[in-house]
């Protein structure tokens, strides 16, 4: 108890933390700045046709993979005809810095950057104006933004670091993406986001986000006890002996995250693509 209090928990939060928070630990997505504008853009994206392409940049770590997997699977709940193209980094890149040409070559109507993009002003401005009508960008991110960063009129940025009312600065990209899906559910009277809380949990654990956050603790506790993603579940089954049959933040961090990271960092492009597809279509 003393250690947890030294790490920042108040006496009032202590027992709640030890008992495992309930869903009251979740902040409303409305506390994320520009979430309503993001919802409006997503609404337009769901109205796209099979003549349109949406490029989704997949960041090169587990948080990036889970963020993009949440977004793509959630989008498919609303539209199954639009062409969604995942864009993977060839190396340990971030955002648009090394995916610019690959994104342009898809001739997208929209570009989505889960877990990236907040600092990509120059790339966004240049890329947006390559086409007529201009490309628009949806950014669902958690990275710290440089103080002198400019923001493009072609992009809607949802970032917990930029949202003064959002208390949990330790939420990862998958968590921000999941919160966006919860917001869109609230508009539509659905609960599809619940199906992806396991991937949000995997993103939080793999990105080594603070578990002193009650929100993170709730997401991880709930997500790891309700694993629905086919690939995540298959990895846990394969590693069951090493994990002692227990799926916990520690066993996931030691026995699951390194497997995915190794493939992302050292695998060929074909292997990385197969790994990502396993997250979104592993059951097929």
How would you describe this structure to a colleague?
With 284 residues, the protein is an alpha/beta fold. The chain has 13 helices and 5 strands. Strands 2-1-3-4-5 form a 5-stranded parallel sheet. Helix 6 (121-128) links the parallel strand 3 and strand 4 (136-141). Helix 8 packs across helix 9. The longest helix has 16 residues, at 173-188. The chain starts with a helix and ends with a helix.
Secondary structure blueprint with pairings:
Blueprint lengths: L1 H5 L4 H8 L16 H12 L6 E6 L3 H15 L6 E6 L11 H5 L5 E5 L6 H8 L7 E6 L13 E5 L13 H16 L8 H10 L7 H11 L5 H9 L10 H7 L1 H10 L2 H13 L3
Parallel strand pairs: 1-2, 1-3, 3-4, 4-5
Helix pairs in contact: 4-7, 4-8, 7-8, 8-9
Features:
globular; 13 helices; alpha/beta; 5 strands; 284 residues; five-stranded parallel sheet
Main beta sheet, described?
A: 5 strands, parallel
Order of helices and strands: HHHEHEHEHEEHHHHHHH
Strand tally, please?
5
Ranges where pLDDT stays below 50 over 5 or more residues in a row are: none
What is the residue-mean pLDDT, rounded to a whole number? 93
User: What fraction of residues sit in β-strands?
Assistant: 5-15%
Question: End-to-end distance, in Å?
Answer: 47 Å
Task: Please report the number of helical segments.
Answer: 13
The computed structural class is: alpha/beta
Gyration radius, in Å = 18 Å
Instruction: State the helicity in percent bands.
Output: 40-55%
Label the overall shape: globular
Largest sheet: spatial strand order: 2-1-3-4-5
């Amino acid at each position: 108890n003393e250690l947890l209090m030294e790490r920042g928990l108040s006496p009032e939060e202590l027992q709640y933390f030890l008992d495992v928070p309930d869903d009251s630990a979740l902040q409303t997505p409305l506390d994320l700045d520009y979430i309503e504008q993001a919802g409006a853009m997503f609404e337009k994206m769901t109205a796209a046709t099979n003549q349109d392409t949406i490029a989704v940049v997949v960041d090169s770590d587990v948080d990036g993979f889970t963020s993009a997997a949440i977004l793509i699977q959630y989008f498919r709940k609303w539209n199954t005809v639009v062409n969604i193209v995942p864009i993977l980094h060839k190396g340990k890149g971030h955002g648009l810095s090394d995916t610019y040409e690959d994104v342009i070559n898809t001739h997208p109507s929209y570009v989505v950057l889960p877990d990236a993009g907040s600092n990509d002003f120059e790339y966004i401005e240049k890329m947006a104006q390559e086409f007529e009508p201009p490309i628009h960008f949806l950014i669902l991110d958690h990275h710290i933004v440089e103080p002198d960063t400019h923001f493009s009129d072609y992009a809607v940025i949802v970032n917990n670091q930029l949202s003064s009312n959002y208390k949990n600065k330790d939420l990862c990209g998958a968590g921000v993406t999941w919160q966006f899906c919860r917001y869109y559910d609230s508009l539509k009277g659905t609960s599809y986001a619940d199906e992806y809380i396991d991937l949000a949990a995997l993103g939080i654990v793999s990105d080594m986000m603070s578990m002193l956050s009650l929100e993170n603790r709730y997401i991880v506790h709930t997500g790891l006890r309700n694993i629905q993603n086919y690939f995540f579940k298959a990895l846990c089954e394969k590693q069951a002996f090493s994990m002692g049959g227990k799926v916990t933040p520690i066993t996931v961090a030691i026995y699951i995250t390194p497997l995915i990271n190794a493939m992302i960092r050292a695998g060929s492009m074909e292997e990385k693509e197969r790994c990502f597809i396993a997250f979104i279509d592993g059951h097929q």
